[in-house]
Design the sequence.
């Protein structure tokens, strides 16, 4: 067999493989699906208006990225406001009643494009990808432009902000990377990433929504006893211990050390 | 005279020099001639994406003094950075627009263009443009209370006649000059021009040997002595070891525990205001705060990060003792024996005359042009824009 012929055979073989691969891809048409989010207090819905024995949401906003459906990466739809191609902002408050520091518009949907037929299993990260996290907030676009999520004294963005009010007492959490070194906007790194990995193996698109259980997040922080407190993700902040452990995070290392108790699948 | 001559030489050059210096990961353009530096003093750093121009500086001054940039119209940058106090506020800790107390004392803005790190104990904040977002948008504590109000800010600068005029002039190359980015860039540009090198000390260094008293000169010797050790943390042209400049090869950043607290002899500082450890989580960073510049220190009482020492005499007594003893209350403990204390805070003997000499030297660092210069003062009188001073 001549050298040229060997090359020609190789190219032909490659073309066949490429066609097979292409056909396989075509057999799974891409579709846009919506992932819905909702705040709950235990088993009951939770909103800015006081309901459950006086408990009310005072804030709940968070970024999600690296979304996977049925074990495959899902592409985020770019709508130039709530989500770009890589991350989305979920906003479950609407600035009414107890949500005094909120925005009027809410967004409980993340729109993704998937190529899977079986839509079982959902995985995502709560946080902002490292390449965006420390960039100047003042030139940021879309979901990264909201100044309520800017947190550059802590070297990056608030990944999640959550608050619960009960009567006159309240507790709030601002989650973001900590223990950063170097100099903004290009720090040398953050030793405590503080990103939450949510893995809901039983989640079925269409049947389930993602619920965020604020009772789980703040159970035991003393709010029911009338204690006002807050956590700003500081590595030695005592008030952070409970909400961090509920999220599955180790306060010192910023790593996930257990499954999150705060995010779960709920019936739609 | 000396100063005028240098100003003449600088304006004679009339152009922005084109030397690029690299400090850390940033590239800075040096040579903007919007300040008067004595011969031999280094240029401050200016980021290449926010070069100075006269319109931008004037716009920054207007914004700096404009109380509309707060949640309730009560507070401007100048509320906590008042010219008469060398751009501090004379309070132990600052008060935000909604009345919330800041845990810390307002820092002077004098020569902040030379600061390698900004605020009292933040290891990563080095750019004034980003730092400006902290008082504007910060929520814990609320300072100006503008979180989530970026649309209102843009509406204001688009609708106000003066701003509608100044923003396009200050940011001529921007397709949309009306942005929060432009607001913080203009404020940063103005603040960078608050440069002070016209104290009696500077005149003495410049060759006017009669301008400092004998007492102040004896105080200078004490300041620079191994016995008192002030210069280790408050050394260099800007009297702080957290300084940089356009020609700096290595960025200097220093944070120090001065034995101000040692709660229950554990080394602890009050919760939530414990210095660098609040950011890094490292035990060795307990109680470590930036050494502020001592330029104009006479005007910036009360002192320390939490304003807990009222006078310079008491600050010197604290260092002479080698740490503060708190006899009673929740912060009880002897700072002198703190396990985290800087090796340079060892204590010293200083008699009354020497203390007076040291204070005389510190007073020689006061630059009265800073607290009186019209170009740093408010452009507003009783809420009305004083238009004739715009240029």
Sequence:
């Amino acid at each position: 067999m001549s050298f040229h012929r060997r090359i020609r055979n190789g190219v032909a073989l490659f073309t066949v493989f490429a066609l097979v691969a292409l056909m396989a891809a075509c057999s799974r048409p891409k579709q846009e699906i919506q992932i819905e989010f909702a705040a709950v207090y235990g088993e009951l819905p939770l909103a800015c208006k006081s309901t459950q024995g006086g408990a009310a949401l005072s804030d709940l906003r968070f970024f999600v990225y690296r979304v996977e459906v049925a074990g495959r990466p899902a592409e985020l739809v770019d709508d130039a406001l709530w989500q770009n191609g890589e991350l989305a902002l979920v906003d479950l408050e609407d600035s009414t009643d107890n949500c005094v520091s909120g925005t009027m518009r809410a967004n409980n949907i993340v729109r993704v494009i998937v190529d899977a037929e079986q839509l079982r299993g959902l995985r995502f990260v709560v946080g902002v990808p490292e390449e965006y996290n420390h960039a100047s907030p003042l030139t940021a676009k879309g979901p990264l432009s909201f100044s309520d999520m800017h947190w550059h004294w802590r070297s990056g963005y608030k990944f999640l902000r959550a608050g619960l009010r009960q009567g006159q007492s309240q507790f709030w959490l601002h989650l973001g990377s900590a223990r950063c070194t170097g100099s903004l906007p290009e720090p040398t790194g953050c030793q405590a990433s503080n990103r939450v990995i949510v893995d809901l193996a039983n989640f079925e698109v269409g049947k389930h929504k993602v619920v965020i259980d604020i009772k789980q997040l703040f159970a035991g922080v003393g709010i029911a006893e009338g204690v006002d407190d807050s956590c700003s993700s500081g590595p030695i902040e005592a008030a952070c211990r409970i909400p961090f452990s509920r999220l599955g995070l180790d306060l010192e290392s910023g790593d996930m050390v257990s499954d999150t108790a705060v995010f779960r699948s709920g019936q739609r | 005279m000396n100063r005028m001559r240098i100003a003449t030489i600088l304006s004679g050059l009339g152009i922005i020099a084109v030397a690029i210096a690299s400090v850390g990961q940033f590239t800075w353009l040096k040579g903007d001639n919007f300040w008067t530096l004595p011969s031999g003093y280094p240029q401050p750093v200016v980021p290449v994406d926010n070069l100075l121009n006269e319109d931008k500086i004037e716009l920054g001054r207007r914004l700096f003094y404009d109380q509309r940039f707060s949640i309730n119209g009560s507070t401007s940058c100048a509320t906590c950075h008042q010219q008469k106090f060398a751009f501090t506020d004379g309070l132990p800790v600052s008060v935000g627009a909604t009345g919330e107390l800041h845990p810390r004392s307002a820092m002077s803005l004098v020569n902040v263009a030379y600061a390698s790190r900004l605020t009292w104990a933040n290891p990563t904040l080095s750019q004034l443009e980003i730092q400006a977002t902290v008082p504007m948008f910060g929520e814990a504590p609320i300072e100006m209370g503008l979180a989530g109000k970026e649309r209102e800010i843009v509406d204001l600068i688009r609708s106000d006649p003066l701003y509608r005029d100044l923003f396009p002039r200050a940011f001529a190359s921007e397709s949309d000059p009306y942005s929060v980015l432009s607001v913080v860039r203009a404020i940063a540009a103005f603040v960078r021009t608050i440069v002070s090198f016209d104290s009696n000390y500077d005149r003495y260094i410049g060759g006017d040997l009669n301008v400092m008293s004998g007492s102040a000169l004896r105080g200078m010797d004490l300041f620079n002595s191994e016995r008192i050790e002030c210069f280790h943390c408050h050394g260099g042209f800007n009297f702080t070891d957290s300084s940089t400049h356009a020609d700096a090869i290595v960025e200097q950043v220093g944070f120090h525990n001065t034995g101000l607290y040692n709660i229950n002899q554990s080394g602890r500082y009050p919760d939530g205001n414990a210095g660098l450890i609040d950011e890094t989580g490292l035990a060795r960073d307990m109680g470590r705060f930036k050494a502020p510049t001592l330029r104009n220190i006479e005007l910036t009482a009360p002192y320390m990060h939490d304003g807990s020492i009222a006078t310079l005499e008491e600050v010197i007594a604290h260092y002479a003792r080698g740490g503060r003893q708190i006899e009673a209350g929740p912060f009880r403990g002897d700072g002198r024996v703190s396990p985290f204390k800087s090796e340079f805070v060892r204590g010293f003997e200083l008699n009354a005359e020497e203390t007076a000499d040291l204070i005389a030297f510190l007073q020689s660092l006061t630059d009265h042009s800073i607290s009186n210069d019209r170009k740093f003062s408010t452009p507003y009188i009783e809420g009305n824009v004083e238009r004739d001073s715009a240029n």
Remarks:
- The mean pLDDT of chain B is 89.
- The longest strand of chain B covers residues 20-23.
- The interface with chain A takes residues 24-26, 117, 119, 122-127, 129-130, 133-134, 136-140, 146-150, 179-181, 184, 251, 271-272, 274, 277-281 of chain B (CB under 8 Å).
- Chain B is about 30% helix and 5% strand.
